[in-house]
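User: Study the shape:
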Amino acid sequence: MEYSVGLLITGSFIFIITLYRLRKVRQHHKLEELIQGRYDVSDLDLSGSTQYTDCYSHNWVIDNITKRTHSRIGAMFQDHLANNTLLAGIWIGFIVSISSMLLALLFLESLRSIGTVIIIFLAGVLIALGPGGPRYAENLLDAIMQSNIEELNTHDYVYVKIANDTIKRSVIVNVIFASAFLLISPWGDLLPILLSQGIAYFTVNIILEPAFLLLNFNIAFALFYIVSIIGVSSIVCFKIGQRLISHEEEGPIVHY
């Protein structure tokens, strides 16, 4: 029962965060339509492969993302790291070690008190927060909306269009995950059984049986197969996750 409740709560949480992110979508699309109606945007490259530099949006990206300044504590840390690298490295190692132990202890205590359903909650939080791209896109659109329309030009439309598309992709991914969590929540208690059976099937039929077959010919072939199948599986899972949260981009062509 706890898995069903966990999936239901997590799916609802993702939906709520997604709805909160949608609160400004209509305004952002009106901004896109306003710039599109004001300027001729028919010749612009909207794929993101061309970087337009002579516009307000590009300057905002440079000031707020590329050259983002540190906080006072961050600046002090940077100065300390530059002036005394060895001591700063020791402090970093100490802080990271203590933090790792505290996080591990917190995670183990959570597992003991709540159960393995905490993993579902953590996955839901990561999905709801998503990558940094949509947040930067929303901040850019908010900044453009607060600026004077006379400060904008044709090239700002590219940034506005890409920002809206980024937010749209993020919303779609969140809705898919939230819907999946809610749909499978009635059968949530079967999830550990199905997951363990899937892992067992993959381990026995995909890894071990072919490896034992190759072992009859050469042990090196068997070891190479095991390492290869694990490596390929890891890469595939990583690529799938990467495609869900972002899109691959080629190096942009700078347009001055």
Observations:
- Residues 2-255 form one domain.
- The chain has one domain: 2-255.
